[in-house]
Amino acid sequence: IGVERVRRGERAVAHALTLERQAELLSVGAELLETLWQARELAPACQAIAERLRAYFEADHVALGTVDLERRVREVLGMSSAVMQAADLPPGLTEEDVTVYRAALAGQGGPAGDIFARPAPNPGTLLGHERGLRSGMRVPFALSDGTVGLVTIGSREPGRYTRADEERLMELARPMAIAIDRVRLLAQMAEASELLEAKTRMLPQQR
Q1: E strands within 41-164?
Q2: What is the distance, to the nearest Å, from the Cα of residue 64 to the centroid of all Cα atoms in its chain?
Q3: pLDDT for 10-21, tens place per residue?
Q4: Which residue of 161, 179, 180, 182 has the smallest Cβ count within 10 Å?
Q5: Are 116 and 134 in contact (CB under 8 A)?
């Protein structure tokens, strides 16, 4: 009877911890979405998200951005890092970058938490390894304009992240794609509205 009570207690504790993690994940997800939903400009909102993700995953490095695999360009939207700055990542993508990012899109990015464990073929990941990152994860998400969003998280601690961490990051990244699309659309609409107003003001002057 005593052993059964211990087992029940262990199951109850495990269940409580699972519920606590799920509640925290939902809270962080809601916070990230609110940050994007209220944003007028994408870059400041993404910077705030990078900082929040770094705290949530207890990371040394978080980068949030987009890559256009056809045009081979990248845009860093937000970065919170102890090992590099956004300017350290060149805007152009190499052939190795394209290969690595296509693999991530296809779900073939290697073991969870392992992207900085050894020197990588693409320059960005290699730079992180050279500057001391030893574990990390990368999650892609598709955007409506055909570009790919990427969230990369790294730590100096080997083996820091697991498949469960990667799944949590995926859960956070999916709704961000919709919110980023929305902010971009609002910016485009505002720009079109300003252009229309400028043309309207010029019409009386041309008569």
Answers
A1: 61-68, 73-81, 135-142, 148-155
A2: 4
A3: 666 554 555 556
A4: 182
A5: yes
CA 14 to CA 12: how far, in whole Å?
5
Q: Express each pLDDT in 101-141 by its tens digit.
A: 988 888 766 666 688 999 888 998 999 999 999 999 999 98
Distance CA 59, CA 49 (A): 13
Strands 148-155 and 73-81: unpaired
Angle (CA) 194-196-197 rounded to 5° is 65
Amino acid (one-letter) located at 161: Y
CA distance 49 to 46: 5
For the segment 144-166, the average pLDDT, to the nearest whole number, is 91
What would you measure as the largest C-alpha separation in the chain, in angstroms?
96
Contact between 133 and 61 under an 8 Å Cβ cutoff? The reply is yes
Confidence class for position 68, pLDDT limits 50, 70, 90: very high
